[in-house]
Amino acid sequence: MEEFHEVAIAYYNNAPRNLQRLAWSFFLALDSDGDGQISYTEYINFLRQCGYGWISSNFFKDLDRNRDGCLGFWEVLTLYYVIKTRGLWCQGCQTCLVGLYFTCVSCFDSGSRTYDLCSACYKQKKFSHNHTNFMDNHLLLRSKRGLPAGTANINLALAPRPAINAAAAVDDDLMQSFQALETGVAGGKPNTCIVM
Ligand SMILES: [Zn+2]
Ligand SMILES: [Zn+2]
């Protein structure tokens, strides 16, 4: 949640004045009893009235960073950021995705609903999905600059090339294996990192 909080503040700080004022108006509107903070009841009322019933009521505890039982302006800003721009939940275990997560590249590229997984579910294969090409969110962003030449997708880019495999098998010298891996990741071009 700390990451979302930081991101929400960063967006706010870079937003034009009128947008910042709208954020404050939203906070004041939420605060129906005018005590300067958002209680659990005010939070639940907002979710129900505005059609965000899919957000877990327990999410309030996650948002309440200082554990004082209510939400301040910055915590409400984090809520706004999560419901408007994220709303990403692991399809395996239904937790809110924070930080690093994996997404199905086929679903992402199709423009339809994305299929996202937390690291644990992806690592332990705790999901059932009809596509196999997954990428973590950081790598996905960098891949938008284009993949290395000669690689159709990220899985091909990451797969060792047969020739390099053979070389590594006959000589298990650490350096040579490492260079072979680097070459494989770069799709055959030595010294080119895939994410650079
Ligand atoms: Zn999960
Ligand atoms: Zn998919």
From TrEMBL:
Keywords: Calcium, Metal-binding, Zinc, Zinc-finger
CDD domains according to UniProt: EFh (cd00051)
Database matches in SUPFAM superfamilies: EF-hand (SSF47473), RING/U-box (SSF57850)
Organism: Quercus lobata
GO molecular function: calcium ion binding; zinc ion binding
Domain (EF-hand): residue spans on this chain: 18-53
Matches recorded under Pfam families: EF-hand_5, ZZ
InterPro entries in UniProt: EF-hand-dom_pair, EF_Hand_1_Ca_BS, EF_hand_dom, Znf_ZZ, Znf_ZZ_sf
Superkingdom per UniProt: Eukaryota
Annotated protein name in UniProt: EF-hand domain-containing protein
